[in-house]
Specification:
homodimer, alpha/beta, Urease, subunit C, domain 1, TIM Barrel, globular
């Protein structure tokens, strides 16, 4: 692997609330990792290949911890429908089609290309109940060197007949998925019970046993809406909270636990998630589109609950997770407007952290450009108007509020430059 | 002017709530107007030039009734700031620079190009207090054949010293602007008191006299936030509502009246606006960014208050008004979530109407593709994924939720195809 130096403006999250900006600086890449950032390039690096991006802005590649890969082709349509009509008219029939491998290959190839295009190189993805299709996505992501978790979905109750597994078959196919894919590189399998209402207690218990056997993490939806919370507790009468279902069944002990939405946590949900070191996922557009509510992101952050970001295709309409950075700031303003008690504004710096370093925390040294992190990075350009200059933070902010993939002029994974598929 | 026929899928708003869709149809353009739409092309038109867009989607060009042209270069930056810091740190210093014509030309040329790029061919724009810069924007829009209102801004109180006019000078320059630009074509001058708190009663009275003398309309901000409503009524103690200030000073009688935001109307504001036939302007991103609140769009629509759409650059972050179509649907869901009493969801069809036909209503026969309307239109493409087809409504919806200017493959004004400036 060749080593090199990038010159430009460099920005990454130092902490949850603080951006580190190095203007007009040199970033040294060695063996695919960030060796260091320098205002003046030290003499020992002066012979290395120099990629000079001028006023280009070098940032970490994005991390997106909640994507329904199978719903990619329904993004941004049918958004007038209420949740259950949307699921029954679009989502479930769509997911059923992943029994066909031709269908799965077409969709999942498009997903991988779009994630690369939008600069999301670290992702946690739901597929469907289908083993072969899930296997295909796993390898498609691995082939590009992406950092990802892929979960074959479990559903053994309260699901359309044509998408409902038996408990036994669900566990069998899940174990096969773990056994075949565990420990194979930058992509890892993850347990993916769709959400508590579609998974019986015996299924949850069985998944907990697989978690222990294969040292595997969990992704699911948690306390997404008031209706979901109520329904879940009716379906699981022995449990005191949504999170307790996963805790008591042993799903939080053997790998990262990733909880999407997390809008209405009870004190028990907070305690369990904090104890387990789980990561929650803010999906602003999606939870608006399905009228779930607004995540209390600022309040959660003050309680030291980790928050990552998700585009949540197809509840969300676009794969660009950087747009969710802007949306998280916007929704926090509305949250504060409507529920001032205990809520506050999310800053751009905090939202950027969610979509980079926080999401990256479930992988190995990705999501930042600090020394020792992998050089998984983007170069942004074209964010200033003719005759005007903006600070690096302002350029990053404008990109998240109104930029698009044309502003991404460089893409790197493990120090290797990525060329987009045609 | 050459006549021609366009073939493709055609969609426009028939009423506030209803889209008209003509799949696989022929639209005949004669003398720059829509002659008709046909499933089979009548024999008498068969010799005309045919532009075949296949599955391309032909829609009306967009109408945007609230743009601060002078704030273009600050879009999408500084969004963490509270309104008054944002105004004082970004907006006002920025607006002051329009005293320089070099500066104004650079910014306004970029604005015009961006509006054409985003398919907004009908617009109502604020400039600044400066006569020469406002004159330049007026002619830049007219040169492209756009349909527009341009208003030199009035501010004679509660404004930074460097942006504050005397009442006399404000009226003098406004009269000059009206006299020089009235009746000159597709672009028209419009009275533009910034908002009531920055305009004294004598200024409002003088503007009312100019409205009568020059048969001129009005654009301003109305009942934008609870703080603004309170402040306005304190500053105008003899008035019972924000709208009454404009009514009693004779500003609603001589042309269209365009009221941006309109989030907190009192009964008097509703009565006055309905009586005057005013158009309100929904600016979803901007009123979120400045934390004003959410326009009660569904409730206003049920009260038969006309609602157009605005990108509200620079409170809004992007000139693409079609994105505000999606945002209007999204915000109506949050409005209903937080204020279920009397509020409801805005459908995609309603939001599309706001950004096309409703906004177009203040101009002459633009914003629809019904017979007799000007052929001011866009052709959209690239909205389907490989291997999938979407209905015309779904393609339009996806465009508004996640599309961009690359999806606009044809642009027409008065039947003439527009080539974007380099």
């Amino acid at each position: 692997m060749s080593d090199f130096v990038c010159h430009g403006d460099i920005m990454y999250s130092e902490t949850v609330e603080k951006l580190k900006v190095c203007e007009d600086s040199y970033l040294v890449v060695q063996d695919g990792f960030v060796e260091g950032i320098y205002e003046t390039l030290p003499e020992k690096f002066q012979g290395m290949e120099l990629k000079d991006y001028g006023r280009g802005l070098i940032i970490p590649a994005f991390s997106d911890l909640h994507i329904h890969a199978s719903q990619f082709v329904q993004r941004g349509v049918g958004m007038d429908k209420l949740l259950f009509d949307w699921l029954n008219d679009y989502t479930f029939p769509q997911e059923a089609r992943f029994a066909s491998m031709d269908y799965a290959k077409n969709v999942y190839d498009q997903v991988v290309t779009e994630l690369l295009r939008q600069g999301t190189f670290h992702a946690s993805l739901f597929t469907t109940i289908h083993y072969d299709a899930s296997d295909y996505l796993f390898h498609a992501l691995a082939d590009k060197g992406m950092y990802a978790y892929v979960g074959k979905v479990n559903m053994d109750m309260n699901s359309p007949e044509y998408l409902c597994e038996t408990t036994e078959e669900s566990l069998k196919q899940t174990e096969r998925f773990l056994a075949e894919h565990q420990g194979k590189g930058t992509v890892q399998p993850i347990l993916t019970p769709r959400f508590a209402p579609t998974c019986s207690e015996p299924l949850m218990k069985g998944l907990g046993e697989l978690a222990a056997k294969y040292h595997c993490g969990l992704q699911t939806h948690l306390v997404e809406s008031l209706a979901e919370v109520k329904w879940t507790l009716e379906l699981f009468p022995g449990y005191g909270s949504d999170a307790e279902i996963y805790e008591r069944n042993g799903l939080l002990e053997h790998g990262p636990s990733i909880f999407a939405h997390y809008i209405f946590p009870s004190q028990a949900d907070l305690d369990i998630v904090r104890k387990a070191g789980s990561v929650t996922v803010h999906c602003p557009d999606a939870t608006t589109n399905i009228t779930a509510g607004i995540m209390p992101a600022k309040a959660l952050s003050e309680k030291e609950i980790p928050i990552a970001m998700g585009c949540d295709i197809g509840g969300g309409q676009h794969a660009a997770v950087y747009r969710q950075v802007a949306r998280a700031v916007q929704l926090s303003k509305l949250k504060e407007f409507y529920e001032p008690e205990g809520n506050g504004r999310v800053t751009f710096a905090q939202a950027f952290h969610m979509a980079t370093k926080a999401g990256g925390s479930v992988f190995d040294r990705v999501g930042s450009l600090e020394k020792g992190y992998r050089f998984n990075a983007l170069v942004l350009d074209g964010l200033e108007d003719a005759g005007f200059t903006l600070s690096p933070e302002e350029r990053a902010e404008r990109f998240c509020y109104g930029g698009d993939d044309r502003n991404i002029i460089g893409r790197f994974i493990d120090g290797k430059e990525i060329v987009l598929p045609e």
